[in-house]
Description:
By secondary structure, this protein is of the alpha+beta class. The chain contains 26 helices and 24 strands. Helix 16 crosses helix 17, helix 18 packs parallel to helix 20 and helix 22 (about 565-580) packs antiparallel against helix 23. The longest helix has 22 residues, at about 1-25. Residues about 1-25 have low confidence and may be disordered.
Amino acid sequence: MKKVISFFLLLMTMINSCNTQTSKMSNNLINETSPYLLQHAYNPVDWNPWNKQNLEKAKKENKLVVISIGYSSCHWCHVMEKESFEDSLVASIMNEKYISVKVDREERPDVDQVYMNAVQLMTGSGGWPLNVITLPDGRPIWGGTYFSKDQWISALTQISDLYNKEPERFINYATTLEKGIKSLDIITTNDNQELASIDLDKHIGSLVNKIDKKNGGFSGAPKFMMPNNIHFLLRSAYQNNDKETLKLVNLTLEKMAYGGVYDQIGGGFSRYSTDEKWHIPHFEKMLYDNAQLISLYSDAYLITNDELYKNVVYETINFVLKELTNSNGGFYSSIDADSKSLDGKENEGAYYVWKEDELKKLLKNEFIVFSDYYNINKYGYWEDDNYVLIKNKSDAAFAKAHNLSKEQVSKKIDAWKKILIKARDKRSTPNIDDKILTSWNGLMINAFIDAYRVFKDKDFLDVASSSAEFIIKNMKKTDGGLYHSHKDGKSKINGYLEDYAASIQAFLNLYENTLDEKWLNTSNDLMKYTYKNFFNAETNMFYFTSKLDDKLISRTVEFRDNVIPSSNSIMANNLFKLSHYFDNKKYLNSSQQMVNNIKDQIELYPGGFSNWMNLILNINKNFYEIAVVGNKAIEKIKELNENYLPNKIIIGSLESNPLPLLKNRFVEGETYIYVCVNKACKMPVKTVKEALKLIE
Length: 696
C-alpha cells in the first residue's frame, strides 16, 4: 500500500511539474519587444506576430486567420485576455482551426488602420480590442471589438464550420469588403485653388454648437478631450476676438483640470472620461494626450494668465518626467489603467482611487477641509466605496468659503498632495508600456518647446533638445529615413508618415526657439525623404506607409484629424512653414493642393478637420515671417514669445546668413526685426514693441 501511495505521490508530482512547465510554455510572441505582445507570450493560444510568413502559412494550410489588435494600457484588452485567451478551451479551438496573430496597434498603426476600417464598415463602430477573422490571404470577413468567452467561442466555431462548407460565400464577401476599404482612401484631386471660398466661420460655429455649455468639452459621454479641436477654437476665438467661444474654451479647460480625468495628486491626464462631468476616467494615461494638452494649456495661459493652466502644465510635465521618461531622452508610450488593489486583484483605477477611511487616517484633522475641496461626498463618489478626486469650485471660491487666504489654500493643497503621493507610492503601480515611438515623442518634444516658449523655463528646452537628439541618434536610419519604435536599445519597424510629420513639426519648433539651423535642415531633409517614399503625385497626398513597406490590403491615406491630428494635416502645415523658410514653391503648392483636396469634406464633418482649418487660417489671412538678425536675436525672440502669435514663423541668426529671409540683412553691432508677409517686408525695427505694431 505504501508503494502505491508513494507511486501516486510521485505521479502527481510529475503531473504538477509538467503542468507548471506547460503553463510556462511560450508562444511565438516571446521574442517580441512590445510589452503588449509580451503580455500574451504565455497564453495557451499559439499567437504569432504580424508578418508575411504567417499569412503564407495560413495560405499553405488553408486556415482562416484571427487578427487580434490592442495595446498594453487597454483595459478591455486585458479583460478579453483573461476571459478568453488564457482559457484552454478557447485556445484549443483557435489553435486547431485558425492561425492566430497578435498586433500591437501602436507598433503597427498601418495594420490597425486597415482592419479598423473593415470593422467600422461591417459594424458601424470600432475600438479596442479589435478582433477580426480573415481569409488565409488576410482579407477580412468578420470582426468586432470585445467579445465575452461564450460569444467568442460561438463565432470561432460557426465561422470555421461555415467556411469549410461554403468558402465561396466568404470569398465573395471579402472581395466586396475589400473594395469598400479601398474606397475610404480615395482622394479626388480638386483643382480649384480658391481657398477663400471656405466658410470657416460656419465650420467654427458647428464645432462651438457641440460644446457642452455646462461641463465643457464636446457633448455626450464618453467624453474625449480632443485637444486639437479645442486648440483650434482657442486660436480662432483669439484672432477673431470671439469672446463667447473663448469663454467656452476656458470652461472646457477649467472643467478638465478640475475633473477626475486629470490626476489631482500626481498630474497628467487619463485618456477620456466615462461621464459628462469629466469625473470617472478610463484610467490609462497616454503620451500623446498629455503632449497635446501641455501645448494647449501653455497657449491658454499665454492668453489668459490663469494660474490654474500654469499649474496643469507644470504638474503634467513633472508626471511625464517622473513616469514616462527614459534616461536616454526618449519618452515611453503609456501607463496601464489596471493595477492590483489591496486584495491582490487587478482592478481598473486601483492606483488612483481612495476610500474615505483611508483618507481620514492619512489626513487626520485636515480631512474635513480636504473632503470639501476634492468632494469626498456624493458628487465625488464612484463605486465600491471608492472616490475619484474632483473639484467643483475655484481656489478663490474655496478660500472665501473657508475664510482662508490664497497662500493658505496653496500650502494646504501642497501638504495634502505630499501625504497622498507618499501613500500612493506604496501601492502596486500600473504597468508602463516602455516602448518609445518616434511620432509620439515628436508630439512631446513639441510640448516641451511650447512650455519653454511660454514659461521660459530652460529645463523644458533642455528636455526637448535631449529627446530630439535621441531621435537623431537612435531613430534615424542609414538611408535618411526614420524607425518607428525603440525598446531595450533596439530600433525597429520602418517609419510611418506620422513619424516624419511629428518629427518635422517638433524640429521646426525647436529651430524657432534656438535658431540652431541643424533642426531646420534636418526638417527639410526629412521632408525630401518623405516626398521620395510616401508621396502620391496623382493626388498630391501622402500615403501612411512607405513604398519600401510590405503591401497590405489597402495603402491607407490618413487625412481625417482625430484625437491626434492626421499625419497628412501635420505634413501640410509643415510644408507651408518650410515653403516660407526656404522660399520653396513646390512645398507651398503641395500644401495648398492638399487643403483643396479635403476642403469639401470639412463641410460634412468639421470636427475631423481642425488642423486643416488651422492651416486655412494661415493661408487666407496674413501669415507673418518674422526675421530677427543680430547678436541679440535670441533675446528678441523670447520677448516676442511673450505674446500669442499663432500666425507666424520665426527665422533668425546671430550673424550673416544666406537663407532667403535673412540674406543681406545682418548689420554688425545691431539687431533688427523684419516683419514680412510673403517675402514683402516692412522697414526693419529694433524693438519688439515696434514689431508688434506691424502684426495684426
